[in-house]
Amino acid sequence: MAGGAAKYRHLSRKSSHRQALLRNLVTSLFTHESITTTWHKAKEAQRLAEKLITLGKKNTNASRRRAESIFYEPGQLLPRLFTTLRDRYLNRPGGYTRVLRIEPLNKHFDQAPSAILELVDGPKDMRFLMTAKTLVRERATEEGVREITARNVTKVTRYRERGRARWRVEEKPIEGQQERQPRVKPRE
Fold it and tell me: pTM score > 0.85 for this model?
């Protein structure tokens, strides 16, 4: 392309097809809170999803009309964007979505790099679940919780509503286990 780098990925489609694809991906993302697609499509859909959540945080008539023009099911998703998601991300300065690389979905054909696109701090937040699983596993060992895991807990709970308090509830020991204080393993 003459004139420098492209400002977006063309995804080997005409502009109308590409816009329809991205609208469909974003509609699915807001419906299910997590979708699996190719990495390049996920990165482009992430840009549009971030813009939509920013529109939801503004909560003006113009932002409602703009969001309505993007969603395929505006009657179902606009109330969710302007209430639930707006309240969830009101204090967060950005970074409302996350793209996680995964193994290629279609192993027998094209080996395209795949990814999971998810809304951060939602019920299906993959990083939150992985951090919780790691924390439980490290608490079961004699060394205690490593420093990097403690930092990840801080990152995961930073913008969540009552994040640390809710995490403490989920950290209660299983009946029959003795309760012990987590020890942070110093960096070597």
Answer: no
Greater model confidence, 66 or 106: 66
Flag whether pLDDT at 28 surpasses 70: yes
C-alpha dihedral, 37 to 14 to 49 to 170, nearest 10°: 0
Give the Cα separation of 6 and 169 in Å (integer).
Answer: 48
